[in-house]
Write a structure and sequence with these properties.
Elements: E1 6-7, H1 9-16, H2 20-28, E2 36-38, E3 41-45, H3 46-60, H4 65-77, H5 81-85, E4 96-98, H6 100-106, H7 113-122, E5 125-128, E6 131-134, H8 137-148, H9 153-181, H10 187-219
Antiparallel strand pairs: 1-3, 2-3, 4-6, 5-6
């Protein structure tokens, strides 16, 4: 196991490819968490180095320092990954780790503090140092695809909140059904059946919507 690296200010600035003056400016703007103090000496670590490289990457992508400061605050005060995953990882969904710049690339610059806060409130996102953790690869991929199709991320998140309400109701319905005829221990084994029913019903509902839409166009 390797020891955690620590750097003086001059070495950190050199490794990050910036000047000491720029590093001081970022620290004054609270873009970096405070260093560890040992008397009058400030010690920085790989967490600070990763944050500086993220700042440079986001600046290259056109983000402003004010926007980056708000994003940094969202990351620093977001839910920890342990809180996000709760008692354990989802049994079928796969969490995804992302850097802030990877998140920005996925959502075409729509990773605003407001959208980040909404995603964290929904439990989609958590933080682990300078990495972001999304609770579900399938949800992340679907959200990314919708944004690339022109749907604003804010509307995707708002829809996700509404879907969450219906999904909780469906999960409650299935749980009550199983518990009336089996035991709680049977829930994990029967879970795929509930998922199949929901997926099939949603597919049929989408078919009905599409047929209805086509009928309205023909009658117009």
């Amino acid at each position: 196991m390797t020891d955690k690296r620590e750097y003086r200010m001059e070495e950190l600035a050199r490794l990050a490819g910036i000047t000491v003056r720029t590093l001081r400016f970022y620290r004054e703007r609270k873009l970096l968490p405070p260093p560890r103090r040992e008397g009058r000496i400030a010690w920085y670590d790989d967490h600070h180095l990763a944050r500086l490289r993220t700042i440079s990457a986001l600046l290259e992508r056109g983000h402003t320092l004010n926007g980056i400061a708000e994003l940094a605050d969202a990351f620093d005060h977001g839910r920890d990954v342990g809180d996000l995953l709760g008692l354990g990882e989802p049994t079928e969904e796969t969490p995804v780790r992302l850097t802030p710049e990877e998140l920005a690339d996925r959502f075409q610059g729509q990773d605003t503090p407001e959208n980040l806060a909404a995603a964290m409130d929904l439990g989609y996102l958590g933080t682990d140092g300078d990495e972001i953790v999304h609770i579900s690869r399938s949800l992340l991929d679907a959200s990314t695809a919708l944004v690339r199709e022109g749907v604003p991320l804010a509307e995707v998140l708002a829809a996700g909140r509404r879907v969450r309400t219906h999904a909780e109701a469906l999960a409650g319905l299935f749980t009550d059904l199983v518990l009336r005829h089996a035991s709680e221990a049977d829930l994990p084994r029967l879970r795929p059946l509930a998922r199949s029913v929901v997926e099939a019903e949603l597919s049929l509902a989408l078919d009905r919507r599409l047929r209805k839409g086509e009928g309205e166009e023909e009658g117009a």
